[in-house]
Amino acid sequence: MTGDQIAILAILALAMAAFLSGRLRHDMVAMGALIACVAAGLVPSEEAFAGFGHPAVITVACVLVLSRGLQTSGAVDVLARTVLPDNAGRTLSLAALTGLGAALSGFMNNVGAMALLMPVALQLARRLDMTPGRMLMPLAFGTILGGMTTLIGTPPNLIVSGFRASAGSGGFSMFDFAPVGLAVALAGLAFIVAVGWRLVPITRAAAGEAFEVGSYLTEVRVGEKGKADGMSLHEIEAELDKADAQVVGLVRGGLRVSAPRGNRRVQGGDVLVLEADVEGIAEALSKLDLKLEEQAKARDEEREKKERVREQAARRDEDEQRRREIDEAASLGDVALAPEPKLDPEPEPAPQESETKKAQAKPGEGGEGEAREARRDTEAEEVVLRELVVRPESQLVGRSARDLALRSRFGVNLLGVSRDGRRSTSRLRTLRLQSGDLLLMQGPADVLAEFASETGCVPLAERELRIPDKRKALLAAGILGLSILVTVVGLLPAAVAFAAGVLASMVLRTVPLRSVYTAVDWPVVVLLAALIPVAGAMEATGTAELIATFLVGTLAQGHPVAALAMVLVVTMFLSDVMNNAATAAVMCPIAIGIAATLGVNPDAFLMSVAIGASCAFLTPIGHQNNTLILGPGGFGFGDYWRLGLPLELVVASVAVPMLLLVWPL
């Protein structure tokens, strides 16, 4: 071995030891390995950070942003409610849930798909009288399996494609992974649904009921010619029953009817008073095409304001035109002949709501309200939902949303109130708040934080609260679909196509602007960007070829099929104990070297790395989805192998024959 080979092997050994210890974050370890390679002269200093511009890194970052668009718009929530059966048994429910998770993971980040479906899994577990872990582990493994079916499903696939392009054969296309990946995913899902879920140990969840905060009373408006228009309350309640929501009042023409009769038919414009939790509210809005009353009212006010401005502008233009006609007539000496038109008086500008309420505000509040309004007019802020508890000393106690002029003074909406199981006969905007009330508020995150601080409210622990937006959901799905289509037909490279999709998402606001950069998992990006030059150093120094020769001669005994199976198994093992992206970056040069040593098709070996790197089922640290379920499922470190080990055997037994069939040696 040369000095460079000894140096790169020492750096890799130290890096893998650091990965396994778990004491340092993976991105820190990768960056340390890169700096060590530069210091040892293995990577030229001018190429040290070339990995940040690598197409695989750019594509990973862009897919994460597009996935956030699917999450925040509620597109996945709507799909889940449509696909998942309401009254099915355990087997069918598990099949639908894991199948949906796998399908979503093929086209969005599988960690995002897992996070979105976790609440659904917990609800199903309660309904089916199962421990949460027996629903969560199959879902986690299903999303991991689904990621291996497309180019963008998981970072290892993108890394493998990048190494193939670097070797001069061009990158893999979007669905090159599908023949083997789909066969493996279907076999794995069938095993999980039929047998595997029974192998999950019965545990007591450490978390899962952490956010049982009761039901909110909220008001929703029935849309004109919407699904609920013309339905009876009996029919509406049958639909709402699936969302664990109920109608407790009806408002028509400003008059509230408490406990309305079930045969009463609702009309467009009616306001229903619902009692439900946040998830139930979101499902009710989606199922019946309803709108939150406060949101609808805010839109109506904004529309009226714009209409008044347009009318005033039209009057001013008309008066200006008349004045010009008079001036022209006068200049021609025809003033006596020209009848003087009667000018409309200059319309008084309509008072702004903030000005009307300024007199009602406490001293010092008016200027702050104007400042907030100016900020809202000049900034495109992300609108979020937050839960706030009213403290005894809060200035909200004894006052209503109308008294406080929440929308004009603070720029926030009160969407619901939860009050210790008691109901009120007051409208939401006139309900006088009490100490201990739980408020469901909507507005920009920083404005809500400022509102809570100023008014003496306490925010609950932050959690994802989403109200589906059909328009944004369709746009988000359309942008992702178009990006995939452009990549598939070869109009643009994947990195460019998905970057264009991110730009479209920003322009159309399917992803809030301030969430574009927070959506990116930066530790993963840094890890990939740092390890790509390190992997290049393995090839440049001949280390990858050296390792490949050793493995082929010692373990595989020169047999290509045995070597292929060995690469798959070694990759699966490494993926269980270190990051899957790091595993792919380390194993790709070795796989290419083995194929070159044997004189066979390198594509089969690269695909075996992609499959193996995606199959981390033995430990909670092998994949982020495994880590996500550790607490909610009540699992310990040693609980994963009971389902994970037989699942990896199923994967290996299906993957090797499929690799030989689809990518012949």
Quick tags:
nine-stranded antiparallel sheet, Alpha-Beta Plaits, 665 residues, alpha+beta, 57% helix
Structure description:
It is a single chain. The chain is of the alpha+beta class. Among the domains are: 224-288, Regulator of K+ conductance, C-terminal domain (Alpha-Beta Plaits, 2-Layer Sandwich); 383-459, Alpha-Beta Plaits, CATH 3.30.70. 57% of the residues lie in helices and 8% in strands. It is built from 26 helices and nine strands. Helix 8 runs parallel beside helix 23, helix 21 packs across helix 22 (560-577) and helix 22 runs antiparallel to helix 23 (580-598). The two termini are 30 Å apart. Residues 204-291, 373-457 form the RCK C-terminal domain. Its main location: membrane.
Secondary-structure blueprint:
Blueprint (H helix, E strand, L loop, with lengths): L2 H19 L4 H14 L15 H19 L1 H9 L6 H16 L4 H18 L4 H16 L7 H12 L11 H17 L21 E7 L10 H9 L4 E7 L2 E4 L12 E6 L1 H11 L1 E3 H39 L21 H6 L6 H14 L4 E8 L10 H4 L1 H5 L2 E6 L19 E7 H11 L1 E3 L10 H19 L5 H15 L13 H19 L2 H14 L3 H18 L2 H19 L3 H12 L10 H5 L12 H22 L3
Antiparallel strand pairs: 1-4, 1-5, 1-7, 2-3, 2-4, 6-8, 6-9, 7-8
